[in-house]
Each structure stands twice: as structure tokens, then as C-alpha cells.
Design a protein that fits this description.
Blueprint (H helix, E strand, L loop, with lengths): L10 H14 L5 E5 L1 H9 L4 E6 L2 H11 L4 H7 E3 L2 H7 L8 E6 L5 H5 L7 E4 L5 H14 L3 E4 L8 H7 L8 E3 L10 E10 L10 E4 L8 H6 L2 E4 L11 H16 L2
Bound molecules: S-adenosylmethionine (SAM).
Length: 260
């Protein structure tokens, strides 16, 4: 166990810890994991943990015991207990479970994306604007067994808010921002409210499934490149589904048919 009391940590140690967590938020090689569930999945999916800091070690161990006993020993081994005031500075914002962690982001190259199994689709989010939506998409993509989640645009899909939205399932599936979303041998399928009606059998297992941004949908450039456009049926007068909901519908349409 590596449990240090914040009181026994000298001032420079405390400053270093705060700086470390602040710097990690800008470090493209690190992931900041806010809360218990992100830590739980990071451990389950073999993330390299750099730090686990809590203001309530007993509470954290109890939570692990109750919710995820498989990760309890790893948490106990890594956790560093600090005073609440110090924790708050490492983890600004609301923190129900009183733990914040750092882990290495997996390195994902274009070659690795090309080499992914063609038995499952890749999800592409074109310029998503809500970090919570990105996280929810990663979560459902991991659950449904998609091959990867790619994003374009300005948002970092590994932003702490997005990792919180995925409950740490970023470690279960490749997640990367890239403009090179065309993957050899994979048809590009635009999921678009103006497409042809989606039939579960019309989703190729090896597709790149492209979803548009929350406000403006898919760009004309992507729609022109697409091999097909599919729409999720909706009742009249409903304009669209939420982005993450649309991803869930399409992935589970594919998966339920695969398993039928
Ligand atoms: C909130 S919607 C964007 C709505 C946007 N105003 C539009 O016209 O496309 C975000 C994305 O979810 C997907 N989506 C939502 N509802 C859909 C539907 N009924 N059929 C197909 N795709 C849908 C599309 O990929 C869309 O670009």
C-alpha cells in the first residue's frame, strides 16, 4: 500500500502533486480519470496507472469491495491518501467518489487502425461538439464490440469529461482523433437522417460508420465520399436522435443481427 497522509507530505510534495495533475490535463500522453468507474475500467482493461489519489481511502476500498472486487487489490496497491483540500486541487469540480487517477494513453497509429479485425465496424464521429456525447459513444461502442472510435474536429476524445462519460471504457477499444478516417477495405457508411432506411442486414461488419456533429450533421464532403447513406426510422416531425443514441441504435442493430 502506498497511502501517504497529506499532513505528512511537505509543502513542496503537495505542490508537486497539484502541478502533476494540472499538467496531465494538457499532456497528450496521459489520461485523467475522474472518479471510481473510470479507474475500475482502466484497471480491467490493463491501463498503465501513473497515480491514484483519494481523500477517503477506506471509502474507496469499500466501494471497490461492493462494486468491483476484482480491482480492489490494484486500487489498494496504487492509492495515495491525501487531505480533502489537497484532493480538491488535484481534482477540481464535483467528485462523488473521491478518487482521481492518471494513466498512460495507449498509442494508436494509423497502421494499427488498418490492421484491426474486419469482423466489427469502426465508428467515426465527424467533429462532435459535446464531450459527454463522445464519452457515451465510446461506452456503447465498447459494449457493442465495435472495432474502434475515431473522431475528427477540435475536441480531444481523451478529454477528462469524455473519459468520465465513457466510464473509462476508452481503455477497452482504440479511441483516436484522426483526419485519416478512410480505412482500406472498409466501406464508408454515412448514418444520416436523409439516407435510405436502415435494415440490420444493410450494415456491413467491416464498415466505417460515420455520424455527424450534433448541430449540423455530416459534412457535404463526407457525404460525397460515402458508399451508402442510411437513416434510422423515426416518427413524423422528429428531426433526429441524439448522437450517442444514434450510434447505439446502429451498433446494436448490427450486433443483434450478427448474433441472431
Ligand atoms: C443530432 S444529429 C444531427 C442533426 C442534424 N441537424 C442533421 O440534420 O443531421 C447527430 C448525428 O446523429 C445521427 N442521427 C441522428 N438521428 C438520425 C436518424 N434518424 N437517422 C440517421 N442518423 C441519425 C446522424 O449521424 C447525425 O449527423
Amino acid at each position: 500500500m502506498n497511502a501517504l497522509s497529506g499532513k505528512s507530505m511537505d509543502e513542496s510534495g503537495q505542490d508537486q502533486l497539484i502541478s502533476r495533475f494540472q499538467a496531465a490535463r494538457r499532456d497528450p500522453e496521459l489520461a485523467v480519470l475522474e472518479g471510481f468507474h473510470a479507474l475500475k475500467h482502466a484497471i480491467r482493461f490493463k491501463a498503465a496507472l501513473h497515480a491514484v489519489v483519494t481523500h477517503n481511502l477506506g471509502g474507496l476500498e469499500l466501494l471497490a469491495e461492493q462494486l468491483a472486487p476484482d480491482v480492489r487489490d490494484t486500487i489498494t496497491e496504487h492509492a495515495q491518501a491525501v487531505r480533502y483540500e489537497l484532493f480538491e486541487q488535484c481534482s477540481p469540480g464535483d467528485q462523488e467518489t473521491g478518487v482521481i487517477s492518471l494513466a498512460a494513453r495507449p498509442v494508436i497509429t494509423h497502421e494499427m487502425l488498418q490492421a484491426l479485425s474486419h469482423d466489427a465496424p469502426v465508428v467515426l464521429l465527424e467533429s462532435p461538439s459535446h464531450l459527454g456525447n463522445i464519452g457515451a459513444v465510446v461506452r456503447v461502442s465498447a459494449a457493442a464490440g465495435a472495432a474502434a472510435v475515431l473522431t475528427t474536429g477540435s475536441h480531444d476524445p481523451w478529454h477528462p469529461h469524455s473519459i468520465r462519460g465513457s466510464a473509462g471504457l476508452h481503455f477497452a477499444i482504440p479511441v483516436v482523433r484522426t483526419d485519416e478516417y478512410a480505412l482500406a477495405g472498409r466501406p464508408l457508411i454515412a448514418i444520416d437522417p436523409d439516407g435510405d432506411e436502415l435494415q440490420p442486414a444493410s450494415i456491413p461488419a467491416n464498415a466505417v460508420l460515420a455520424f455527424g456533429s450534433e448541430r449540423s450533421g455530416l459534412s457535404d464532403a463526407l457525404l460525397k465520399r460515402a458508399d451508402a447513406r442510411l437513416r434510422i426510422p423515426m416518427e413524423p416531425a422528429v428531426s433526429s436522435l441524439n448522437l450517442a443514441t444514434a450510434v447505439a441504435v446502429v451498433l446494436y442493430a448490427w450486433r443483434l443481427r450478427r448474433d441472431s
